[in-house]
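To the wet lab folks,

You asked to see what we're planning to order before we commit. Fair enough. Below is the target structure as tokens, and below that is the sequence we designed to fit it. If anything looks off to you, flag it before the synthesis order goes out.
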């Protein structure tokens, strides 16, 4: 299952919380695409994903103002 978490226009810490909640609710085997337009959030989201031990498949700047992170949830988060 694939889903998108669009946190563009938001400032931290709300996007980090939203992403963490979306990852925890996602089923094992799911792929999530996260979109943000804030570089600090881009970095902080990657950090929380690493803490949650979620596989980051891609983390890129897609244009002048937008960033995309693609992750796979390969196991339950404890």
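Sequence we intend to order:
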């Amino acid at each position: 299952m694939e889903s998108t978490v669009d946190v563009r226009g938001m400032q931290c810490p709300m996007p980090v919380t939203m992403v963490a909640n979306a990852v925890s609710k996602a089923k094992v085997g799911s792929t999530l695409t996260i979109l943000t337009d804030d570089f600090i959030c881009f970095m902080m989201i990657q950090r929380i994903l690493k803490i949650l031990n979620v596989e980051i498949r891609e983390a890129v700047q897609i244009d002048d103002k937008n960033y995309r992170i693609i992750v796979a949830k390969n196991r339950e988060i404890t």
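Structural context that might help your review: The mean pLDDT is 95. The first strand starts at residue 2 and ends at 6.

Thanks,
Computational group
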